[in-house]
Amino acid sequence: MIPLCVPDFDDREKAAIEDVLKSGWLTHGPYNKEFEYKFAEYHGVKYAVSMNSCTSALFLALKAQNITGEVIVPSFTFAASANAIVTAGAKPVFADIDYGTCNIDPESVKAKITPDTEAIMIVHFGGQCCRMDEIMTIAEKNGLVVIEDSAETIGGEYKGKKAGSFATGCFSFFPTKNMTTGEGGMITTNDKDLAVKISALIGHGIIKREYERESDPMPWYRSASYPGYNFRMSNLLAAMGVVQLDKLNSMNERRIKNACYLRSLIGDIDEIEMPFEDVNCKHVFQMFTIKMKEYDRDEFVEDLRKKGVGASVHFTPPVHLQEYYINTFGEQQLPVTEKVSNNILTLPLYPQIGNEKIDIIADAVRDTCANLSNK
């Protein structure tokens, strides 16, 4: 089976992990500081705070900014986006998406704004940024906070500016993402006060980190400034992050090259739609998604998997149709979201996949089209 994704590790990650093990400093430590500095520099922002997941980042982006009202968010996303809103004490309001990019539709955002709206949480889908100039204009006009769920678009750009640098950026380092630490997340911001508060909240509300207190006269003195959480990223994972970040541009360029090659092999098939690329964006292909024009999507995925191609679906059902959200917030009509959720599928793609495996994927796609056409 050709897997959907394979992390790109080599001896550099192993050496970094070994360095941490030898140091004995396994919890939040010096590599976190280096990772945060380099991540902020890469994204062209002033501050970055590492933590245990993107879900924690989304939660804290809301909690630290005292967001308790309505938050507009796409339903076409992983449940974590909406879950973070609910667990932070706010209310998700689901907006529809643009059919081509699968990103939140700014016109739908406008239609969802009420006097109770406090924030917009956009989700950069699959490696391609949302139309951020329109989103930021809407937010500024209505006095709304913007949170960028950039989990799937690390290194992606809109008009030359990195995802996660327009507002409060939230990132994931899960193994399927463009860079990985196994588990982990990051927040980016230009707001110093917000960065300091979030940095404290991830470590039980204590502003100064443990390894930073080691040089203090009384390093055991720990006073909480906030009722915080244990959302810290370990020094081990941060060490991996430093290495992965250094490789990120190279890994993304290989993703783009592989996506281009796969498109060249299957782009002429009339019955399926290729990924749409906005001319204003640098698409970094965290996922290579195609849409069915005629075939049953589930049958298509099942047939590919029988052929040894680990295809999958992102995302079905959309969040507004999931049990908790229907029961809590009632039924909603999001026609584009529902159409895409029923006809989209994800093909395997990762930096080191190679042309030989891409050829196999393309042949399997063509064979599946032929099989389903003959039914």
Strand content: 5-15%
Class based on secondary structure composition and strand pairing: alpha/beta
The percent of residues in helical segments reads: 40-55%
Largest sheet: 7 strands, mixed
Distance between the termini: 25 Å
State the CATH architecture of the largest domain: 3-Layer(aba) Sandwich
Count of helices?
13
What would the CATH topology of the largest domain be?
A: Aspartate Aminotransferase, domain 2
Radius of gyration: 21 Å
Could you list the spans in which at least 5 consecutive residues all have pLDDT below 50? Answer: none
Describe the structure.
By secondary structure, the protein is of the alpha/beta class. The protein has two domains: 11-247, Type I PLP-dependent aspartate aminotransferase-like (Major domain) (Aspartate Aminotransferase, domain 2); 248-373, Aspartate Aminotransferase, domain 1 (Alpha-Beta Complex), CATH 3.90.1150.10. 42% of the residues lie in helices and 14% in strands. It contains 13 helices and 13 strands. The strands form three sheets. Strands 1-9-8-5-4-2-3 form a seven-stranded mixed beta sheet, sandwiched between helices. Strands 7-6-11 form a three-stranded antiparallel beta sheet, with no helix packed on it. A three-stranded antiparallel beta sheet has the order 10-12-13. α1 (11-23) runs antiparallel to α9 and α3 packs parallel to α4 (79-87). It is globular. The chain starts with 10 loop residues before the first helix and ends with a helix. The mean pLDDT is 95.
